[in-house]
Amino acid sequence: ETGVTQTPRHLVMGMTNKKSLKCEQHLGHNAMYWYKQSAKKPLELMFVYSLEERVENNSVPSRFSPECPNSSHLFLHLHTLQPEDSALYLCASSRRVWEEQYFGPGTRLTVT
Amino acid sequence: DQQVKQNSPSLSVQEGRISILNCDYTNSMFDYFLWYKKYPAEGPTFLISISSIKDKNEDGRFTVFLNKSAKHLSLHIVPSQPGDSAVYFCAASFTQGGSEKLVFGKGTKLTVNP
Predict the structure, then answer these.
(1) Does A56 touch chain B (CB under 8 A)?
(2) Rounded distance, CA B112 to CA B114, Å?
(3) Which residues, listed in sequence order, are joined to residue A110 by a DSSP beta bridge?
(4) Are A68 and A81 in contact (CB under 8 A)?
(5) CB A56 to CB B43 under 8 A?
(6) What is the rounded CA–CA span in Å between residue A21 and residue A8?
């Protein structure tokens, strides 16, 4: 058990839907991350939050909108996605930014 | 319990020479290994990876070597350039119960001196 949970674990959505991914960490960490992992591709960093402030945004399309209401919770709001957005979305947390990261199990997203 | 260890927090190399960054892991279930490079104030970017069925993967000046019996991998940069100065993260992953696990090391700061 990593102490980082993600819900839902699997999500199928149409291109016109709006959905949200949720991440929660129980480790008392101050930094949280969203990553995208497409099939047979390396991990891509999407967003980084430190103490609820966004510190990194790696040129992610605006159809992905992060929200960090407190240091324990991180959301990724999705709207008008494309089929190529189908991937595994991983949340991670660390004590401070760029320290060793603990990952959640991921949400397997399929956009139809 | 640190499953991926980069025991050298920093490394300094002269331009044109070889940089060797090391990484050790403890979990024999890891089957895919990655190196990321991170400049200050930027997120890490993928550099090179290797599957556990291989022992070497080369991409330009970057070569990753995997020694499964020793649970050790290394990144070689030849020749090193000042622009290579960055923090390098080793990461290892495996799939368990349908979920992917990815563990990063703490990073090694490489400085290439002109």
Answers:
(1) yes
(2) 7
(3) A12
(4) no
(5) yes
(6) 7
